[in-house]
Structure formats: C-alpha cells, structure tokens
Amino acid sequence: MNPKPNGPDRADTVRGVTDGPARGDHVFADERQARIAEHVSVRGRARIGELAEIFGVTEPTIRKDLSALQEQGLLKRTHGGALAIHPNADRELTGRQTANPTAKEAIARACLGLLRDGDSVFLDSGTTVAALARALAEDTRGLRLSVLTSSLGVALSLADVREIDCVLLGGQVRRVDGSLVGPLALENMQRFTFSAAFLGVSGFSEVGVSVGSLAEAAIKEAVIERARRVVVPMDQTKVGATDFARVCALDEVDVVVMDVATPAVRELCAAYDIELVTAGA
C-alpha cells in the first residue's frame, strides 16, 4: 500500500477544533482547559509552545492550565508539555470482550458496509474485529469473501459460513488473545495480498497506531505492506492512547470506523487524509 502524504503542521490542523471564545480571558479559563484536555487526550501528547499558539495565550498560562489539569487527573505534565493518561490496553481477552459491547457491535455492522463481493480480506485479532467476524457469520449480505485471519476466535466464527473461504494464518499462539504470531506466521503472510485489512489496535494517536506486544505489531506491519486498504475499527477509548509497540504512522491508515467521534478526532483524521466512518452506536 502506498503511504499517503504526511499530515500538515499540527498547529494548523487543530485550529478548527479550538477556534472560538476560549482565548486569553480569565472568564474562559475553564473552557480553555477543557479543550486542552481534549486536545491532549486525542493527540496523545502536546508541547507547551504548540498549545500556546493554538489557544492564543502565553506559555506561562498554558503551564498553569496543565498543572490544574494534572491535579484533576486528566493528563500528566512533562518538562515541555503534557501526555495523555490512559489505562493499560493489553488486558486479558475475557476482560476486553465485556468492554463497550454495544459500541463494538455497531462498529462491526458499519464495517460490513466497506466490504465488496469477491474481496480478499485480512481479519486481525482483537475484540472489535471478532465482533465483525460474528456479524459476518450471522449475515454475509450475499458477499463471497476470501478471508485470512491470525485469530483463532475469528476462524471458529467463520469456519461454517459457506460464502466465506477462511484460512488460518498459522504460527505461535498468544495466550492473552488467541492470536498467531512469530516467524512462521510472518513467513506464511508472504503468500497473500488483501483488498482490505481490518486491524485491531489498542492505541490510536498522533504518535501512530500501537499495540501491546512487538510480536503482534510485526504481524500488523506485514499485513499493512500487503493490503490495498487498511481499516482500523475501534471504539473511542483507543483514541489518544499509546501502547507499548508502534505499528505504523497514521498516514498508513485509510479508514477508521468508530462508534462516535469528537470534533478533535475528526480533525486528526482529516489531517492525515483518513476516511472516518461513525457507526452511531
């Protein structure tokens, strides 16, 4: 897949989100701080100079804002700016399956609309992609698909669906989520190309797409290299999070499918030419 051009300067891309009355006046301090918290949460990090330019206030004012937001537990102050605070995303699969089930089902239904008859599809590990597999098993909408998956759960969901030719990648099984990784999986991946790849992620921020393990990231990187279109289905809890292993930059993502999206998320996707699909959960 050919990467898209790099996104424009960050200070320019977020002005549409932060324009408005929240400028230097004291009366708007609470509103400005709320917007700063959202900006840092969506982007994953921000520098003091960048925030001062965006919000039209001095750097000392931004430092006071960041200190106030840190006291509220909304971000973490750093020497030159701030980092988003997010919980550890690489939990056991059973714990993740029970989180945001309604949102994941809505996202899965929205993903079905991105598929075309005859597509060759990669379905990754992750609970949101597993929801997509279950939705396909219930109703393929008349589509005939060739599916490669690195997830034992996805393979079981699709094993008896007549319209789908499902192939399991092979490799070493990760106990945490039942996904297949390792040298054998990477070697097998070289046999395939995809019309579309649906990737599960645990972090999506300006830093890029990230997951909880290097082995998992390596599989996703190999998929991206062999896919014409990269789709990231995720609920809003992943936005702004940065997990242990970086998979790719945002300019390698073609489509994001979410349950809901804030203006800041829309601006971030627009900055990197990412099509944003909201499921309306």
Could you characterize what this model shows?
The chain is an alpha/beta fold and 281 residues long. It folds into 2 domains: 10-84, Arc Repressor Mutant, subunit A, CATH 1.10.10.10; 93-278, 3-Layer(aba) Sandwich (Rossmann fold). 38% of the residues lie in helices and 19% in strands. The strands form 4 sheets. It has a 7-stranded parallel β-sheet, with helices on both faces. It has a 3-stranded antiparallel β-sheet with strand order 1-3-2. Strands 10-11-13 form a 3-stranded antiparallel β-sheet.
- Largest sheet descriptor: 7 strands, parallel
Instruction: Write down the Rg.
Output: 20 Å
What's the domain count?
2
Helix tally?
12
Secondary structure layout:
Blueprint: H1 10-13, H2 15-18, H3 29-43, E1 45-47, H4 48-55, H5 59-71, E2 75-77, E3 81-84, H6 93-97, H7 101-112, E4 120-123, H8 127-138, E5 145-149, H9 152-158, E6 164-168, E7 172-173, E8 180-181, H10 183-189, E9 196-198, E10 203-205, E11 208-211, H11 214-225, E12 230-233, E13 245-248, E14 255-258, H12 263-271, E15 275-278
Parallel strand pairs: 4-5, 4-9, 5-6, 9-12, 12-14, 14-15
Antiparallel strand pairs: 1-3, 2-3, 7-8, 10-11, 11-13
Features:
281 residues; alpha/beta; Arc Repressor Mutant, subunit A; Rossmann fold; 2 domains; seven-stranded parallel beta sheet; three-stranded antiparallel beta sheet; 15 strands; elongated
Sum this structure up briefly.
This protein is α/β, with parallel strands linked by helices.
